[in-house]
Amino acid sequence: MSLGKLTHYSIDLVLISVILAGVHRNTGLTFDTSHFNSVDFRRWFGNYLAFGEKCYDYTVKLLKMTGYFKQNNLVFDYVKRNANEILKEQTGRDIADFNPHQD
């Protein structure tokens, strides 16, 4: 096996582990290792998944530090976008009417 293929397979394994870590972080779903008979393989696979979690954390930290990414709160953004419409429906006034810093 050439060094190029070994590198390619290693990177693929890391990416799969990071994807599984992302699924775990975003949905709470975890890979069930109890189906494996070998305790050693379970331990190895648990370490493999833990490595993916560390890579995922490192990637997220790196992306936050670049400044090109920002974190959004989907619920807050939805309310913020629709706040003026809801306020107008319920009170008949604009959100600008409630701004104390307006001249």
TrEMBL record:
<keyword id="KW-0732">Signal</keyword>
<protein>
    <recommendedName>
        <fullName>DUF1748-domain-containing protein</fullName>
    </recommendedName>
</protein>
<dbReference type="GO" id="GO:0005737">
    <property type="term" value="C:cytoplasm"/>
</dbReference>
<dbReference type="InterPro" id="IPR013726">
    <property type="entry name" value="Mitofissin"/>
</dbReference>
<dbReference type="Pfam" id="PF08520">
    <property type="entry name" value="Mitofissin"/>
</dbReference>
<feature type="signal peptide">
    <location>
        <begin position="1"/>
        <end position="21"/>
    </location>
</feature>
